[in-house]
């Protein structure tokens, strides 16, 4: 098997731990950047040390998977905060050219995000001024984009002028200057792909919408790719944290010399055409991008397929569950038929086909209705892969990678690792995100003044204990016989994500 060198987007489990699972399942030799060289939230990784490590490992490597946001800026959050000059960025990009010259047979897969602009006030992962001006900065991007497209209304033109009066010039200049540098770096990365330095490139849109900075830049970058005769060879689609796993799946398929034939099946006929939150196109279109980016083939019928991607898409109703209809009630939607969906899953499993469930109905959490169906029908431990986290694209990419790794594994060790990763995802995406997170979040005011979901202050250990206690209760209810214990950590001192460390039970 080939040796893969992996430079992740950042140090969070979704970018650092998930790929290691995918590698172990497939049997691939994946060399991950040492954690000691990675950053921590707003602290950038040691870019120069990572470069030296990469050069050393490349001597005996076959494929390099590189996050350009790590390579250039030190991670995803530092890409939104840096004060790097265009010259420094250009010098860092040239490192890939020198690496290819030193080892011309090294295959390089890269991804580089189009920088996001969240539609809210809050400086958690953004510059400090985003706390006060965030939503207006976002709206300014929408209005600039519409102005360029000659779509701006008189009322919107007035809103743009008002924002220019309310948001200090130095704030707008700082935000736009950084975006301009990042945009130029995207173009230079396209140049590297056109020259054959980068063998495959994905430019994902992080938290995007129909209009704004990111869509405008995507159109510009696509046009630039066309000028370089790369229009059909570079993938542009919504995503971020899953892309490392996607490229790892592609590397696995390339190394094996074959790829799984995957059939997408949707739990809602209407949902296939729904645009998910934080994305700019229907989920049905994104599914095709995700499968092709991973190097998989798309089956026309279920019977010919090696595996089934079971997509639980959003609907107009389910998208309300994240922000409007928050309760402990499990909702039965009229625009999806879970009875029919689970019956098809059972049929696929009886045929001996691999099945992976991409739970995309509700942003940032599993759909409790779907999980109840899978539990009652005894399917939780029969499907091969599961995901239900963050955005639809995040979920799709990791589930497809998990399925791909399962397709290629031929060892009991790989199958056991796949089961462990599946349990990991149940514990995090269903247990934590859907069953525990909100309940513990509601308790935070009781722990002291200033403790909130985006900053746990000095109460991290107490919160960790509360989460772990409730997750163990969840495991006792739904996975009593699972052969793993676990401990959790809170990597960025907030409630959004946790870090789970599994360990085999002593008596298993």
Automatic annotation (TrEMBL):
InterPro entries documented for this protein: DUF4127
Domain of life according to the entry: Bacteria
Pfam families reported in the protein's UniProt record: DUF4127
Name of the protein this chain belongs to: DUF4127 family protein
Natural source organism: Candidatus Blautia pullicola
């Amino acid at each position: 098997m080939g040796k893969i060198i992996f430079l992740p987007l950042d140090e969070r489990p979704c970018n650092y731990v998930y790929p290691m699972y995918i590698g172990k399942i497939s049997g691939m030799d994946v060399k991950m950047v040492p954690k000691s060289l990675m950053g921590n939230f707003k602290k950038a990784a040691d870019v120069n040390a990572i470069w030296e490590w990469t050069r050393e490992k490349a001597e005996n490597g076959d494929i390099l998977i590189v996050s350009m946001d790590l390579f250039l800026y030190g991670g995803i959050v530092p890409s939104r905060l840096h004060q790097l000059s265009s010259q420094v960025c250009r010098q860092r990009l040239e490192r890939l050219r020198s690496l290819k010259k030193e080892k011309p047979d090294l295959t390089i897969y890269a991804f580089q995000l189009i920088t996001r602009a969240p539609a809210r006030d809050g400086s958690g992962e953004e510059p400090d001024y985003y706390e006060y001006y965030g939503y207006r900065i976002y709206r300014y991007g929408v209005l600039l984009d519409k102005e360029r497209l000659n779509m701006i209304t008189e009322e919107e033109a007035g809103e743009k002028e008002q924002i220019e009066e309310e948001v200090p010039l130095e704030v707008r200049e700082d935000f736009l200057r950084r975006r301009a540098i990042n945009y130029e770096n995207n173009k230079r990365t396209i140049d590297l792909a056109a020259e054959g330095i980068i063998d495959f490139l994905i430019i994902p849109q992080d938290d995007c919408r129909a209009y704004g900075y990111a869509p405008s830049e995507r159109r510009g970058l696509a046009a630039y790719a066309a000028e370089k005769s790369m229009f059909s060879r570079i993938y542009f689609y919504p995503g971020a944290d899953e892309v490392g796993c996607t490229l790892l799946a592609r590397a696995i398929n390339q190394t094996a010399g074959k790829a799984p034939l995957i059939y997408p099946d949707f739990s809602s006929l209407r949902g296939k055409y729904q645009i998910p939150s934080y994305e700019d196109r229907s989920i049905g279109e994104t599914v095709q991008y995700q499968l092709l980016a991973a190097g998989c083939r798309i089956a026309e019928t279920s019977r010919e397929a090696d595996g089934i991607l079971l997509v639980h898409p959003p609907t107009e109703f389910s998208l309300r569950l994240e922000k409007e209809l928050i309760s402990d009630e499990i909702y039965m939607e009229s625009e999806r038929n879970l009875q029919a969906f689970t019956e098809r899953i059972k049929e696929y499993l009886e045929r001996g086909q691999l099945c992976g469930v991409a739970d995309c109905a509700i942003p940032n959490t599993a759909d409790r209705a779907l999980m109840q169906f899978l539990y009652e029908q005894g399917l939780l431990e029969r499907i091969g892969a599961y995901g239900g986290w963050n955005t639809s694209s995040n979920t799709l990419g990791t589930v497809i990678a998990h399925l791909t790794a399962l397709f290629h594994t031929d060892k009991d060790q790989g199958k056991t690792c796949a089961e462990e990763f599946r349990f990991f995802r149940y514990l995090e995406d269903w247990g934590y995100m859907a069953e525990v997170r909100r309940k513990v979040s509601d308790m935070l005011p009781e722990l002291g003044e200033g403790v909130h979901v985006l900053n746990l202050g000095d109460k991290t250990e107490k919160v960790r204990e509360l989460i772990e206690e409730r997750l163990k209760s969840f495991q006792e209810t739904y996975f009593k016989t699972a052969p793993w214990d676990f401990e959790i950590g809170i990597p960025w001192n907030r409630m959004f994500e946790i870090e789970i460390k599994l360990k085999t039970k002593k008596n298993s």
